[in-house]
Task: structure prediction
Amino acid sequence: MTRYRELAPPPRTIMTPGPVEADPRVLRAMSYPMLGQFDPAFTALMNETMEMLRALFATANGWAYPVDGTSRSGLEAALAALIEPGERVLVPIFGRFGHLLHEIALRYGAEVSVIEQEWGRVFDPQQVIEAIDRVRPAVVALVHGETSTGQLQPLREIGAACRSRGVLLVVDAVATIGGVPVETDAWQLDAVVGGTQKCLSVPPGMAPLTYNDAAERKLLARRRIERGLRTPEGGEAQAARQIADAQAGMLPRERHIRSNYLDLSQLQDYWSPARLNHHTEMTSMLYGLREGVRLALEEGLAARHARHLLHGGALAAGLEAMGLQLYGERVSRLPVVACVRIPDGIDGEAVRALLLEQFGIEIASSFGPLKGMIWRIGTMGYSCSRRNVLLTLGALEAALLRHGLRLPAGEAVQTALQYYTRSEGI
Ligand SMILES: *Cc1c(COP(=O)(O)O)cnc(C)c1O
Result:
């Protein structure tokens, strides 16, 4: 006997910028029996997943596969692969995740230049292009959809400017992939990292990414001691000897070699037909990712993007009808996260707790300068539905009334219903 009861997570409506509700078909896929990682039945699933990821990222790139770990692992793997120590990297920052890119680039020894935009806005592409011409970086690292501020950075002009100057552009599309168009090839993005637990509605635990030939050339020709260091199957002993030899003539502070786990040159060998053994693939996660991407493609990317626009629009209209103010520049709003100002005199955390405890609905708080100032309400993936939007508006209204806020009762849900009727008429 154990005093622990059987696992029974409470049912929730998750309206945050991730992790969001997983599609039940994804959860079912993850419960299927195990396959060995080199079983041809499993490697066939890996190959199909790569093919489907190319469609998802809108790319003809040879490489499109997941890194095992949450989205941050993909960002770190991409930056580690593409930054030479001492190289100049430009990071335009317009929210929390820009700071993350900055931090990672510093860890890998880049000379980082940042430009910062006031939170709640994005960069005019021209500002970024001017900074590129001033800094002359080897790499630009930029967030596409900033979930901390609910803003969407246009990338096309920046992509073209980077390409014409021979600068590699690395994009964090964690929050946008599967919910908002991400055009890897058309926008000339060199490396793009997506996320699972946001608009794809797969549990957290993988970071699908893609990169082109220019990025691959750079990651294969990395700094001196890593050059030639490829761990062949079962070749850890040989790799250890190579590292030791390479380090012998170096000062201790020069001896750092980057992550083994996140080494894209080894990971791509594992995803290549050679299947050089690296770590054990997260087999059940791969089932989930494959099903999540399959469902996205089955829905159709254009239809899926339209669904996210529709429900994000209905939510925003309902929030405004309640008398609440949306935070941030309107034209560049990220359709999958509504940032809402917490009304004066209202305890944001108490309202969130009431929503969770009484209605089983989770909305998010915020970070840094926005903490206590805004709530963030996501409409992502499987959570992005009419039912969830209407329930959330009704519940938030009730919670705010309960906390003594005077508001035009009933307007929010009616406005959202009206929004849906009008959208159907188009
Ligand atoms: C959620 C998020 C991340 C981090 O993802 P993890 O899965 O938590 O590692 C990075 N960038 C953006 C824009 C995000 O929204």
About this structure: Residues 319 and 412 are 6 Å apart (CA to CA). DSSP finds 14 helices and 13 strands in the chain.
